[in-house]
Amino acid sequence: MNPGPRLLIALGAALLILGLLWALFPQLRLGRLPGDLAFGGERWRVSIPLGTSLLLSILLTLALVLFSWLFGTRR
After folding, report:
1. Does 75 score more than 70 pLDDT?
2. Rounded CA gap, 39 and 53, in Å?
3. How many whole angstroms separate alpha carbon 71 and alpha carbon 20?
4. Cβ atoms of residues 36 and 52 within 8 Å
5. How far is Cα 68 from Cα 10, in angstroms, rounded to an integer?
6. Which of 35, 54, 71, 74 is the most exposed place for a label (fewest CB within 10 A)?
7. Domain range list for the chain
8. What local confidence, expressed as pLDDT, does residue 1 receive?
9. What are 13-26's pLDDT values in tens digits?
10. Could you report how far apart the first and last alpha carbons of the chain are, in Å?
11. How far is it, in rounded angstroms, from Cα 51 to Cα 59?
């Protein structure tokens, strides 16, 4: 079977779950985690989301490992 449709269904399900989590838990404070840097003056602001980037990187890595394990080629 062609893996294309399965991939699209899995990506759609993942986006749906992320959207529901985002709507149900607005207090997650992504962008304002410990490790996120913010500098500013009177008329400017610079934000460097290091903590958020690290968290998203870990979550995406775990999701890809799980996806590879579930939908990987069988030998």
Report:
1. no
2. 17
3. 23
4. yes
5. 11
6. 74
7. 3-71
8. 60
9. 888 888 888 788 77
10. 15
11. 12
